Amino acid sequence: MVQDLHKYETNKFTKTLSVKTASNKYVVPSGEIQGHINIYKFGRAEGVGLTKTIVWDGVSDYLFLTSNSLLDVSSTSSEDTMTTGTNAWKIRIEGLVDNSGSWDFQSEEIELDGLNKVTSTKEFIRVYRAYVIQGGDADALSGANLGTISIEATGTSNLLAQINPTNGQTLMCIYTTPSGYTALLSSVGSSTTKGQSVFTELKTRDNSETDSVFRVRAVRELYQNNFGINYDIARLLPEKTDILLTAQTDAGTVDVSASFEILLIKKDLNLKE
Prior knowledge:
Number of strands: 18
Low-confidence stretches: 1-23
Number of domains: 2
Distance between the termini: 18 Å
Number of helices: 2
Oligomer: single chain
CATH architecture of the largest domain: Sandwich
Order of helices and strands: HEEHEEEEEEEEEEEEEEEE
Helix content: under 10%
CATH topology of the largest domain: Jelly Rolls
Largest sheet: 5 strands, antiparallel
């Protein structure tokens, strides 16, 4: 039981829960601590060059939505078709929806139709993850999606998420804090293996402010190695904050992998004292 492992402290004024333990990293993901959600975002960008790029599956800049939109989903392979295809059949999309100013969790499962676009029934203002949940090939190497699965704002070419072949999952270092939660940034990491320098930045934007812009919150320079930092004092990021990682090199091109981890804590927890 959680009560046997942890010392709880409840703040009667803020209704937040403080858990004093070295084992939080095991208990929080289990969902046993009320109002706490662990989020791990990881991504990879191929062919990073002189121009700064966001670490994600796409090859272009990432354009955030400014209002709710339906989504169009398609693949570059006809084998990614519900029940009749050999590979991906169905995906799950996760993000946020704008409910009269409140950015709330949103998700939907989409049955694929190969090269044909399938339009979602739900609207999104943010998409931060998508993954294959059902398919015809369970092989760990060749299974999941055979083609590139694209998720676009309906009626546009604005790419919001992409699942590259056989990954079965988006690899995007992009996230947005939902309304009603505060995000505590606990770790950031990045790596490259090629003999070149790579400059990475963690950037955030607080959308609760009018005409807000991105600002740099952390910088790292790598040379043919990896770097990770675990913050002893977590960085606080308020609701509606966009979080992303960028990368660039000083010569040629290089592939970059990166990640960050946050703990979402629900505001105004209704905790028993």
